[in-house]
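Final report, results section. Input specification for complex C-07:
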Amino acid sequence: MKPYRVLCVCLGNICRSPTAEEVLRHILKQHHLNIVVDSAGTSNYHPNATPDSRSQAHAKRRGYDLSMLKARQIKLNDWVDFDLILAMDLDNLKDLKRLQQQAVLSFKDVPLAKLALMTEHDLTQIKQPIADPYYGGDDGFERVLNQCESASHAWATYFKQQHIG
Ligand code: 4NP
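Structure output:
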């Protein structure tokens, strides 16, 4: 059976969503869940770029290697290829809802990915945005990691409850 597939999405796909991708992949693996994780950006600002060096450095200190990841823009077909799309913040969610409407019109009668916030089921930060660290300092990058780790544990619990993966 095809594994369940999750796509993490932010604006640039160089800070938050690659961090979310690697952290979620790592934590789902710890929970022995067979789920594929990828990431993309709503923009095409940084095509094929590796994650921001600050994101990489902060992640590395916690044991996450982001160096192999490459930025890409979300495409309409991702709604067919993935089971769940996770928005990092409310702007991402708004942009993704627009794209979802296009997908509904383009792929009639094909099951499409569900859409949720990264923090959807995390009781410690329920539906809180993962703030963009791009123009800020070190604390912003640490906060992204803290939020992604907490949210990923919540998703692992949710997937187990739903018998996904
Ligand atoms: P991300 O952060 O959406 O978390 O990847 C950003 C990266 C780049 C830009 C904005 C946000 N930018 O404007 O280039």
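The pocket of 4-nitrophenyl phosphate is lined by residues 10-16, 45, 132, 134 (CB under 6 Å). The longest strand covers residues 4-10. This concludes the modelling results for the funded period.
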